[in-house]
Amino acid sequence: MKTSKIAIIGAGAVGATTAYAILMRNIAAEIVLIDINTIRCAGEVLDLSDALAFYSSSDIRNGTIADTKDADIIVIAAGVAQKPDQPRTELIEKNKEIITSVMKSISPLNPDTIVIMVTNPVDIMTLLAQTLSNIPHNQIFGSGTMLDSQRVNIMLSKKLFVSERSITTYILGEHGDTQFPAWSSAYVGCTPLLEYPGVTKNELDAIAESVRNKAYEIIKCKGATFFGIAACVAALCEYVLFDKHMIVPVSTYIDEFKLCMSMPVVLGRRGIERRIAIRLNDEEGKLLEKSADALKSLIM
Ligand code: NAD
């Protein structure tokens, strides 16, 4: 019988915590962790399996690349992570090698599989994975700025005393230093954020800056970020498996720029179903181009 299966490649801090977040959501019958460090992977599975009785009906086990063949979703979190004060872009060379070897090992992909890239710099790794795969571009996307966008919504929620679920802000572009919030298209309930009382442009700028630097801040304090991204990836898995047609900002192929970066899309069982038009003012339009230029310089 066909049941939902999620394979996670890279059972480090992000991969293992993603497995935990997925099992807490109870969305997959089978979760398989795969890592070249088979001992750490086995340890993570032993530890995670203790949590099953309290949360979930999933089965969790360690596996091999062969497990990706019938997976509904493959999450890729293999790679080196940032050190304190290190920009994501410095991980490029090492992670390109790792993602190239991972993509070769899982090819050819089952034509119905969805691949979620998490390895940083995620926009560059998403494009690389798309280039090396046999499935359509819309079935491979990166977590992109979805977490950054929720960080903004949470900060606005505290300022405006409105639930973050009633606030919609999209951070666009690179998941990195050139990302920016599209304030002119942000809403609090049915009111444009820029017309909503209680927050000034300076305060919005400070929020954007703080979100841009949040990963650096966390890494400085504890060496890595994993709870937020794990919760974000588990939510993305749910939107795919349950064909939710959620509108989310994730890293996707953008024809105009010929690269991957985050824009709002409709996400369902077939991956990215379509892009959603977003109105940007002149300043935001320039910021989008600047972000695309920064990514382009990394691809060359
Ligand atoms: P980590 O060092 O804890 O774990 C990485 C794991 O990848 C290790 O267990 C390692 O053995 C494994 N690995 C390396 N090469 C492999 C291969 N060829 N096949 C299978 N496994 C392999 O690092 P982490 O903190 O889990 O971070 C993982 C990646 O996720 C990093 O690139 C990090 O920058 C990125 N990350 C992305 C986001 C995001 O928002 N997109 C957030 C946090 C971390």
Strand order of the largest sheet: 3-2-1-4-5-6
Strand content: 15-25%
Question: For the record, what CATH class of the largest domain applies?
Answer: Alpha Beta
Poorly predicted runs: none
- Under the CATH scheme, the architecture of the largest domain is Alpha-Beta Complex
Q: N-to-C SSE series? A: EHEHHEEHEHEHEEEEEHHHEEEH
Count of spatially separate domains? 2
| Record field, number of beta strands | 14
Which molecules other than protein and nucleic acid are bound? Answer: nicotinamide-adenine-dinucleotide
Q: Mind summarizing the main beta sheet? A: 6 strands, parallel
How much helicity do the residues have?
40-55%
Number of helices, counting only DSSP H or I runs of 4 residues or more: 10
Task: Write structural notes for this entry.
The protein has 2 domains: 5-142, NAD(P)-binding Rossmann-like Domain (Rossmann fold), CATH 3.40.50; 146-299, L-2-Hydroxyisocaproate Dehydrogenase, Chain A, domain 2 (Alpha-Beta Complex). It has helices at 13-25, 38-49, 52-55, 92-106, 122-131, 146-160, 201-212, 214-222, 227-241, 282-299, and strands at residues 5-9, 30-34, 59-62, 73-76, 114-117, 140-142, 167-168, 171-172, 180-181, 187-188, 191-192, 246-254, 259-268, 271-275. It starts with a strand and ends with a helix. Strand 10 (187-188) and strand 11 (191-192) form a beta hairpin. The model has no long low-confidence stretch (mean pLDDT 96). It has a 6-stranded parallel β-sheet, sandwiched between helices. The protein is 41% helix and 20% strand. It has 300 residues and is of the alpha/beta class. Bound molecules: nicotinamide-adenine-dinucleotide. Nicotinamide-adenine-dinucleotide is lined by residues 9-15, 35-37, 40, 77-82, 91, 95, 98, 101-102, 118-120, 122, 143, 147, 175, 224-226, 229.
